[in-house]
Amino acid sequence: MRFAFTEEEDNFRDEVRKFLKSELPNNWDGVAGNNLEEGASDKEWDFALEMRKKLADKGWLTMAWPNEYGGQNASMMKQVIFAEEMTLARAPGRDGFGIRMLAPTLMIHGTEAQKTQYLPDIAKGNVQWCQGYSEPESGSDLASLQTRAVEDGDDFVINGTKVWTSSAHRADKMFILVRTNPEAPKHRGISFLLIDDMKSEGIKVNPIIDMAGRHNFNMVTFDNVRVPQKNLVGELNRGWYVGATLLDFERSGVEYSSRCMALLTELIEFAKTNKRGGKYISEDPNITKEITEIYTEINVSRGMSYKIADMQSNGEVPNKESSMSKLFGTVLEQKVADLGMQILGMYGQLGPESKHNKLKGKIEQEFLSSVSATIAAGTSEIQRGIIATRGLGLPKP
Amino acid sequence: MDLSLDETQQMLKNTAKDFFATECPETHVREMENDKDGYNKQLWEKIVNQGWLGVPFAEKYGGFGLTFLEFCILLEEAGRVLLPEPLFHAVLLGGMPINIFGNEKQKDELLPKIISGESIATLAFHEEDDSILPSSIQCQASMSTNGYTISGTKMFVPFANISDMIITIARTGDKDTDLSAFIIPSTAEGISISELSTISSDKQSVINLDNVQIPATNILGQKNKGWELVEQIFSFGAIGKSCEMLGASEKVLEGTVEYAKTRTQFGRPIGTFGEIQRHCSEMATIVEGTRFVIYEAAWKLAQNKNAKKEVSMAKSWTSDSHKKVCAISHQVHGGIGFTKEHWVQLYSRRAKAAEIAFGDGNYHREKLSKLLGF
């Protein structure tokens, strides 16, 4: 047991910090106090891509990849440190879809041709992928998905609708789960395909604006979209299991605690330096009690993600641990945002556009965007179901 | 960052887990609730023979030469079975103050006795005002020709009934923090001990000291530096208690999940119902989160690093989390859980006692808020 980082790890953290300090504008604040990828404006997106290239040049994007694919086989802890520093600095440029999800899946299930074709561009930060999973009628019950792909000559022809597709409007390519055998049991008629061009004929990307007024999600419709058969990953009708591999490459989830700590640190500073009713906000015992509780919970959350990283370092595959970390961490994000609202009082209702706002209106934005935290990537209810049945062995309902 | 146990730690954990599973079944815990001494001498001897009273002490005193961290691993396993025997008290409240604050002579003389079980020492801090503040201490120690004369009343002294040494915190000056620690033989003239009847059926006592005379050499640590001893030992105590609660939480989770799988209502196991699954996943998540905060603090304490924030985070979190785990367990068990014959109430009664020992959630949140600069 050792609750400290090695000298090498500390040095690496310094290196990342220095890099971010030199690359990010002065007083950089992310967007709405958050990372840039989600709901960025055009200008912000361009900056995110610029950062991505620089991170790729440093070799940091692919450090988790095996050496044979140009990675560094970096330790799980090094990855955690990188994620922590990026999140604390609210720095944009990481690539969740290409680097973290698709690439490791291709390394396991892809053909040699697919690996050669796709991995180098992902590694260089040249391409934006998006993920075609959820559908209007298939949310938590993902395996019931109905988007149909029919073999036709050398191609598949896709018809259907995908929804909640993050960054589809920015993406060059998409990996998608489609139904290739409607007769088989629901898990056994799904295939995993790669769509090379989001501008293909028949693809329409329709924006979904979230309650914070940001455009991150989309609904994507497919009208006779042709995809060559060579773009099938893994076996036909075995796509569910290819897709499930992808979920094993989930992050350790250290982002939850880092994001919360970045915001809480600002809130503490604000409460200590701003007065209401003639007293510093930090003199209100209700506020300080909540701050200390949340400070402690952030540490608990950090521990949960370190445990996952530790398991992965030891070659174990986390399962219920990831669900627990997500469940706990996302509720925490909502608590911090709510605390921010309490600290700001009447000013909590003012967003970035108001000239009267405090903390640049980011608390209003955080509060609004935190609603999706316990829903996106598997609702809290789904996580609890996973913990109860897969984790604790309770019988399925 | 490495959250795994090393070989020695894993071996200690496995041995302790097996030992306690065999030696401390539920029947034993129940029996000791009504026992005159509150512990079983044969079992105590077996624990002594394992060498566990010497885990955090140097080999020259007969100890294992390991650290507080390894002792925490033992406490977690003891907590799992609600061990009634005074392992926590003998080592943490008796041995550790002597080991940290004693002079060479005291250590040479007393530690081997504590490690071999020949002697049991405990710590008498609390008084009528039960807050953990220097100003709560009214017990007076005045210099006399042969040493000190001590008078006052100590409350909530654990296992005073079987201890032969009471490490007593008393006032030795006018300033708030002018406190000193004294080793008082429990047989000294002027001492009377009366037992309290507690929620967890453990052994805590009120000690009356009426002009108790002790030699000057019985002072433990420097004069007027007793508050430092209290702060340090209470930090260890907070984490030791947290470890016991962690073990207990794990056991409550396991037992509750088992019950949810086997208890049927409406023709199926209650564990198939969403509400019960929600309860169980909530418990599991809380327990999962508890381990890291506790062991981070334990590791830092064992390494002599500043662990003030970590200790307060761990104790405030665990005080509340273990109480919650027990409350959820009661909800899943329904009526049977609050009967005397059921095992859950053994845990939930002790959860309350552990929550308030060495500072409850609010006490440690208050400390933490000061450390955060409020």
How would you describe this structure to a colleague?
The complex is a heterodimer of chains A (397) and B (374). Chain A is of the alpha+beta class. Chain A folds into three domains: 7-94, Butyryl-Coa Dehydrogenase, subunit A, domain 1 (Orthogonal Bundle); 129-242, Butyryl-CoA Dehydrogenase, subunit A, domain 2; 250-391, Butyryl-CoA Dehydrogenase, subunit A, domain 3. Chain A is 45% helix and 15% strand. In chain A, α7 packs antiparallel against α8, α7 packs parallel to α9 and α9 packs antiparallel against α10 (362-370). Chain A is globular. Chain A starts with 6 loop residues before the first helix and ends in a 6-residue tail after the last helix. In chain A, 47% of the residues are buried. Chain B is of the alpha+beta class. Chain B folds into three domains: 7-119, Acyl-CoA dehydrogenase/oxidase, N-terminal domain (Butyryl-Coa Dehydrogenase, subunit A, domain 1, Orthogonal Bundle), CATH 1.10.540; 122-224, Butyryl-CoA Dehydrogenase, subunit A, domain 2; 228-371, Butyryl-CoA Dehydrogenase, subunit A, domain 3. Chain B has helices at residues 7-23, 26-33, 41-49, 68-80, 87-101, 104-115, 226-262, 274-302, 308-333, 344-356, 361-371, and strands at residues 121-124, 140-144, 147-158, 165-171, 179-185, 191-196, 204-215, 219-220, 264-265, 268-269. The longest helix of chain B is centred in the middle third of the chain and has 37 residues, at 226-262. The mean pLDDT of chain B is 97.
| Count of domains of chain A | 3
The shape of chain A is globular
Beta-strand content of chain B: 15-25%
| Total beta-strand segments of chain A | 10
Number of domains of chain B: 3
CATH architecture of the largest domain in chain A: Up-down Bundle
Largest interface: A-B, 49 and 47 residues
**Unreliable segments of chain B (pLDDT under 50, ≥5 consecutive)?**
none
Taken from the alpha-carbon principal axes, the silhouette of chain B is globular
How does the major sheet of chain A shape up? Answer: 4 strands, mixed
Structural class of chain B: alpha+beta
Biggest sheet of chain A, strands in spatial order?
1-4-5-8
Name given to the CATH homologous superfamily of the largest domain in chain B: Butyryl-CoA Dehydrogenase, subunit A, domain 3
Question: How many β-strand runs of chain B?
Answer: 10
- Considering DSSP H and I runs of 4 or more, what fraction of the residues of chain A is helical? 40-55%
Please state the CA-atom Rg of chain B, rounded to the nearest Å.
21 Å
Query: What is the CATH domain class of the largest domain in chain B?
Result: Mainly Alpha
CATH class value of the largest domain in chain A: Mainly Alpha
Low-confidence residue ranges of chain A:
none
CA-based gyration radius of chain A = 22 Å
Mean pLDDT of chain A: 92
